[in-house]
């Protein structure tokens, strides 16, 4: 497999965690979202992913984009360890939390939107994340065990950790979200979350390396 990734992309990080958890080795092709006006806009990368976004994964003779579609494929083809619970209610909760982050928070504060916000970008990002985290904190108080849904790592956790990383980058006050903070801390102790961390990627700038 070949993963097209950017070290600081939360969407790419979700997929890197899934690949690490499932023990799938891959080659990484860095796509710098800031350099050369954004390497994702090159004709070469557009041929890989017409949406001109990372991640994209070449695997089993196909190219997949969209982080959750990639993770679902990895779940279907490499079912261990499971990232979706067998219990249907818990499975629905995992998907709900993942969608809450992937659709309801992250796109509102991604690079393309922030460029359009200009000087207001920090306030905008903080407000979008805080609004989403207020709801997420409330949800997790009902679903969480050690992790987002019960005591097993799930797709929801793969979405949570990169979003908390974004929140910290945008200086969101995380003391308001104790459940999110507790789960995030527990997940960052796991090896798959460590090796996939933005501070430990081949394309991480020297000053940001762990």
Automatic annotation (TrEMBL):
Residue ranges constituting the GST C-terminal domain according to the UniProt record: 87-206
Domain named GST N-terminal: residues: 1-82
One annotated GO molecular function: maleylacetoacetate isomerase activity
Listed EC numbers: 2.5.1.18, 5.2.1.2
One term under GO cellular component: mitochondrion
GO term, biological process aspect, one: glutathione metabolic process
Pathway(s) annotated for this protein in UniProt: Amino-acid degradation; L-phenylalanine degradation; acetoacetate and fumarate from L-phenylalanine: step 5/6
Reaction catalysed by this enzyme: RX + glutathione = an S-substituted glutathione + a halide anion + H(+); 4-maleylacetoacetate = 4-fumarylacetoacetate
InterPro entries: Glutathione-S-Trfase_C-like, Glutathione-S-Trfase_C_sf, Glutathione_S-Trfase, Glutathione_S-Trfase_N, GST_C, GST_Zeta, GST_Zeta_C, GST_Zeta_N
Cofactor: glutathione
Keywords for the protein's UniProt record, in alphabetical order: Cytoplasm, Isomerase, Phenylalanine catabolism, Transferase, Tyrosine catabolism
Domain of life: Eukaryota
Gene3D superfamilies, sorted: 1.20.1050.10, Glutaredoxin
Compartment(s) where it occurs, according to its Swiss-Prot or TrEMBL record: Cytoplasm
SUPFAM superfamilies named in the record: GST C-terminal domain-like, Thioredoxin-like
Family: Belongs to the GST superfamily. Zeta family.
Protein name as catalogued: Maleylacetoacetate isomerase
This protein's encoding gene: Gstz1
